[in-house]
Amino acid sequence: MTFEEIEKKALLEWRVLEQVEKPCLLVGAATCGRSAGALAVIDAINKTLKEFNIEAKVIQVGCIGLCYAEPMVDIIKPGRPRISYGNLTPEIVSQLIEDYLIKDNTRPDLALGYIGDGRVDGIPALFDLPVLKPQVRIVLRNCGFIDPENINHYVANDGYKGLVRALKMEPEAIIQEIKKSGLRGRGGAGFPTWLKWDICRRELSPEKYIICNADEGDPGAFMNRSLLEGDPHSVLEGMVIGAYAIGANQGYIYCRAEYPLALERLNIALPQMEEYGFVGDNILGSGFNFHIKIKEGAGAFVCGEETALMASIEGKRGMPRARPPFPAQSGLWGKPTNINNVETWANVAVILEKGGEWYAQYGTETSKGSKTFALVGKVERTGLIEVPLGIKLGEVIYEVAGGILKGKQFKAVQTGGPSGGCLPVNLLDLPVDYESLTDAGSIMGSGGMIVMDEDTCVVDIAEYFLSFTQAESCGKCVPCRVGTKQMLNILERISKGEGKLEDIEQLERLANTVKSGSLCGLGQTAPNPVLTTIRYFRSEYEEHINKKRCPALVCRKLISFYILPDKCAGCMICLRNCPVEAIRGGKRLIHVIDQDKCIECGTCLDVCPKRFSAVVKVSGVKIEVPREPILVKGS
Amino acid sequence: MPHELAEIFKSYQAEKGAVIPLLQKVQENLGYLSKEAISEIAKFSGISESEVFGVASFYAQFRFTPRGEHSLKVCLGTACHVRGGSNILETVERELGVQPGGTTSDYKFSLERVACFGCCALAPVMVVDKDVHGRMTTTKVKDILGKY
After folding, report:
1. Burial A551-575, CB ≥16 within 10 A → b, else e
2. Residues 6 or more apart from B61 whose CB is under 8 A from it?
3. For a tag site, which of A188, A284, A424, B55 has the least CB within 10 Å?
4. B27 and B75 inside one domain
């Protein structure tokens, strides 16, 4: 089949979906949707359709990124624009089908918005919602809209057009196009993509490799997972284009095993590409051969580092090695290798299709285009977003994410995962670009963005990240292996209230040694969470050390729980729920917590009925309460 | 050599650097990596047993003891941590009476802590086999465990 024939076939299939004669229901069923209950929603849909004898198509799509509204279902009804519904349960979706498909009630109360031409009374346009309006969706263009297991859907939405164009170009011209776009590595380091390609292209070797790094290991980040689950072909198309520009005939995708659905979707996508001649021998009649193999990671964070990743593909322990030689000169099996992140590859296909200049219209002078972020933590609207680079941090947190959960105070935003830093409130005007974030002591990283409120303790967060990097250090370099452990010991001491004032300086000294003495990015950036929290929240460290007090009431050794005698009604709920039987009391008796037995788990605070609110959490103070249970006042 | 190992090895003939996929496939079939399995993989790959064990013990995925019927993983990624993941883990530990890495004495559950599942928006998260349980609370733990 020629590409024109493939396109015709794909468009035909897509249009049937768009201009439906029977209704079509699209369910967001990526990992996040499934964990929110999407599969139960699908069961309910099928059951209800059968019950009412409605003929309709049900399709599983990827994630549009509005995780806070999962599970989501889009309904296309003939003659109406597509309407997105959110926060569904099996019961609600059954009712919705009855109301909309039978009684023609669009249920604006359940709708998030409509997509496409036309209008629906009482329902806003989805892309006008505050969460979507500031976004620029380039990489995520298809996520949540197409069936990721159907290559025709991708082709019908301009898929593989970039490849067709690239195959008619000289490899140098492709690299020039990427140069014009200003695309930089989306894995976090931000190295210019065109330059990386060009160095590898110039190497004279009959054997070259390209790799897609899908070993997304930062805790709190899921951009790549969502993309691979929602639109695998966009990544694969980019890889074929890159391979052609560089002159590689073999490619690898190294995807972490913790992403079974992403792996499944890739395994479905590859044979479809082969069938259409987009990968394999003599791609689209151009004479260019390229094959892709999928490699499953085995659970080592350090394998996200390029040299460690290559060692892992070779079947060795995933330990980084010194550079030079750079992978572009001597990489996988000692051959020139080009390695890019999932998101970088996904950008390539669009750039080739629409041109480098088009792409460069977004972003700032030095950071072009858009970037996806996994926006999580204490915000109203968690999810996967894609924003133009240069957008202000505050805009992301207050407009896209809708501000802090439960109206609490913003404290810090953490970018770049365990390699990044915590930025405080006075940096909310900071533009999100590679240079600004680095200057502030953090990094762009692969796109984790974790928002913390007043109830988050920075010492605890620093300790959390360091315990992660310390455990994941491969052990090759002494400063990383021993230094992170020493830093962790000090942080643990501080969070227990056993810190000394000189600990802060000691931490900074160790941090600088680990940074400068480690071979790979893991060690070089591991101290960032500690350094930034000291830089921006030094007084909180001092309070832990001097006053033995955790101002955010998080560090367990520094907090206590008390039951206020004038509020306790003696209902026994906390007593029954306490996991360590530390609460004494009885019916109509004021309950007392045995401070020696208490493990500070907070269960009593969670379960105490709101109308009593008798349990308090404090740090650095002692509250006078009865020693033994006594009768509740007035009883 | 056990028959099932021979079957697995067949599909990796002449593949460069196949040690990790081999280990994965064997673990998938046997549930864990026994001493014998490691020794057979070493023979097949033409490298020493210590080298194979060195690779296997480097990666968090591989286990060297039999596992329980259900795998229970509690996520302690950043988002889960900020939203109370460690409380969930502690509750599970108490309910099952095992630490992460351990298996209950009736071989019903194996408990693990993981660094991130990538469904951070639903934090805190706990995964039993392939079922993801999002927006967990300590009080939900018992109910969920009871379902298995």
Report:
1. bbbbbbebbbbbbebeebbbbeebb
2. A257, A298, A299, B24, B27
3. A424
4. no
CA distances from A255 to A42, A219, A297, A624 (A): 28, 15, 6, 56
Token pair belonging to B64: 């060297």
Last residue of a domain, one of A411, A433, A453: A453
The region of weakest confidence among A23-32, A97-106, B1-10, B53-62 is: B1-10
Indicate which of B15, B76, B82 best probes the interface with A, i.e. most A CBs within 10 Å of its own CB: B82
| Per-residue model confidence as pLDDT tens digits over A327-336 | 999 999 999 9
Place of tokens 């004669």: A21
d(CA A140, CA A138): 5
CB contact under 8 A, B116 and A217: yes
Q: H-helix or E-strand containing A503?
A: helix A502-517
Is B120 within 8 Å of A218 (Cβ atoms)?
no
A519: domain CATH number is 1.20.1440.230
Instruction: Give per-residue pLDDT as tens, A196-224.
Output: 999 999 999 999 999 999 999 888 788 99
Q: Residue B130 sits in a domain of what CATH number?
A: 3.40.30.10
Q: Are residues A320 and A398 in the same domain?
A: no
pLDDT of residue A573: 94
Contact by Cβ (8 Å): A372, A385: yes
Shared-domain flag, residues A337 and A384: no
Q: Chain B residue closest to A384 (CA)?
A: B121
Query: Do A45 and A116 share a domain, yes or no?
Result: yes
In the DSSP assignment, the letter for residue B70 is E
Give the total number of structural domains in chain B: 2
pLDDT digits (tens, 9 = 90+) for A285-306: 999 999 999 999 998 999 999 9
The set of residues, in sequence order, having a beta carbon less than 8 Å from that of A264 and lying 6+ positions away, is none
* Residue-range definition of the domain harbouring residue B14: 3-58
Residues of B in contact with A313 (CB under 8 A): 17
Query: Which chain B residues are closer than 8 Å to A410 by Cβ?
Result: none
- Segment A251-290, tens digit of pLDDT: 999 999 888 899 999 999 999 999 999 999 999 999 999 9
Assess if residue B46 is contained within a domain. Answer: yes
Backbone angles phi, psi at A339, to 5 degrees: -125, 125
Instruction: Count Cβ atoms below 10 Å from residue A311 Cβ, excluding itself.
Output: 23
Residue A452's closest chain B neighbor by CA? B82
Per-residue pLDDT at A473:
95
Total of domains in chain A: 5
Same domain, B75 and B142: yes
- Could you give the percent of chain B with pLDDT greater than 90? 52
CA distance A318 to chain B (A): 8
Shared domain check, A283 and A219: yes
Task: Scan for tokens 């103070």, then name that residue.
Answer: A621
Q: Do B17 and A35 touch (CB under 8 A)?
A: no
User: Are A298 and B94 inside 8 Å of each other by CB?
Assistant: no
Name chain A contacts of B45, Cβ cutoff 8 Å.
315
What DSSP designation does A374 have? Answer: E
Same domain, A395 and A446: yes
Quick check: B115 contacting A, CB < 8 Å?
yes
Query: How do residues A79-100 score in pLDDT, each as one tens digit?
Result: 889 999 999 999 999 999 999 9
For residue B115, give the chain A residue with the closest CA: A219
Domain endpoint, select from A453, A478, A511:
A453
Q: What pLDDT sits at residue A127?
A: 94
* pLDDT tens-place string over residues A446-504: 899 999 999 999 999 999 999 999 999 999 999 999 999 999 999 999 999 999 999 99
Q: Do A219 and B18 touch (CB under 8 A)?
A: no
